[in-house]
Amino acid sequence: MKIQIYCRSFAPAVGGMEKLMEVLAMQFHREGHDIAVVTETEGSADLPYPVHRRPGFARYLSLCRDSDIILTAPLSMRRILPQALSRRPIVAAPPDPFVWTNRKERIAAAIKWWASARVDNIVPSRYMATRFARATVIMNPYDEETFHLPPPGSPREGILFVGRLDARKGVSLLVEAFAKIAARQPQAHLTIVGDGDERDAIAVQITGRGLVDRVTLAGTLRGHALVSEMQRHAIMVVPSITEEPFGIVALEGLACGCRMVIARSGGLPEAVGPFALTFARGDADDLAARLIEALGEREPPSPESVSRHLQQFRPAVIARQYLEVLRSAAA
């Protein structure tokens, strides 16, 4: 099957949807399908399938017509028209519910809502399925070849955050919660991996709370460097203050053996199942209490039980589920 994947942001860009589509494209390629990725992201990445970056209207229409089916993540105002004109079946994989903060975004969201009701949608959680018509729930995969347990007996300590530094991800909330426990836990250290618009504000907050020696802003890490951070930390926190559609980063933390502490936010609890401590979204006091609990925990979930939970998120398993939907739509 000739599958075109449209992903607005793609490698070398970093993010949940970028990683999801890269993992799926690789798995489709391994199973013998003819894959072409189209993206608005400039740059380059060493991948075994073609990536077309910012093609013009005519070129993109040609790419659509050369496909058996289009997997679009997400529906794009810029690309809806050529996709429709190609008369190829379209399956959408919306990364989150359509939201808006101004009139222009509201109009775009209304058009996308109209379009999404006329195509098949693949969503990663039951939470997301309540936001879309014609929705099939297929949870997101994690990269099992990259994210795995460290050697037995490896030392682990400290608290870790991995993600974009923007207001929605709750990093400021995490720093506030850490400040509440810092005096009672003098050996605890917080590492923040990632970058974004909130970095300067977070740095000011850390300084203001007197935590310069207790909190490290590590910047963006990828590949082995990122895995090493996950493998050496005991606890990983996903403190999102808005509803998360899913939570691939939580799966990656679980796979690396971190004790997960997550906000009760959207699809996050569906990703981790019973293998995380949870706190009320946006509640720094509740997060601080869960951090104290995790730091003092003597019997965390066994690696064997976590491994069994993660089996359902293996790329091959998820890719087969996607292919079932794509074949049905293309029939």
Commentary on this structure:
The protein is α/β, with parallel strands linked by helices and 331 residues long. The chain folds into 2 domains: 2-141 and 314-330, Rossmann fold (3-Layer(aba) Sandwich); 159-312, Rossmann fold. It is built from 13 helices and 13 strands. It has helices at residues 16-30, 57-65, 80-85, 103-116, 126-129, 171-181, 199-208, 223-232, 248-255, 268-272, 284-295, 303-310, 315-330; strands spanning 2-7, 34-39, 51-53, 69-73, 90-92, 120-123, 135-137, 159-162, 190-193, 215-219, 235-238, 259-263, 276-279. The strands form 2 sheets. Strands 3-2-1-4-5-6-7 form a 7-stranded parallel sheet, with helices on both faces. It has a 6-stranded parallel sheet with strand order 10-9-8-11-12-13, sandwiched between helices. Helix 10 links the parallel strand 12 and strand 13. Helix 1 (16-30) crosses helix 13, helix 6 packs parallel to helix 7 (199-208) and helix 6 (171-181) crosses helix 11 (284-295). The protein is globular, with a radius of gyration of 21 Å. The N and C termini lie close together (11 Å). The relative contact order is 0.13. The model has no long low-confidence stretch (mean pLDDT 94).
What is the N-to-C succession of helices and strands? EHEEHEHEHEHEEHEHEHEHEHEHHH
CATH fold name of the largest domain: Rossmann fold
What's the Cα radius of gyration?
Answer: 21 Å
Distance between the termini: 11 Å
Overall average pLDDT: 94
- Stretches with pLDDT under 50, minimum 5 residues: none
How many strands, what sense, and barrel or not for the largest sheet?
7 strands, parallel
> What is the CATH level 1 assignment of the largest domain?
Alpha Beta
What is the percent of helical residues? 25-40%
CATH architecture of the largest domain: 3-Layer(aba) Sandwich
What is the strand arrangement across the widest sheet?
3-2-1-4-5-6-7
Give the structural class: alpha/beta
Strand content: 15-25%
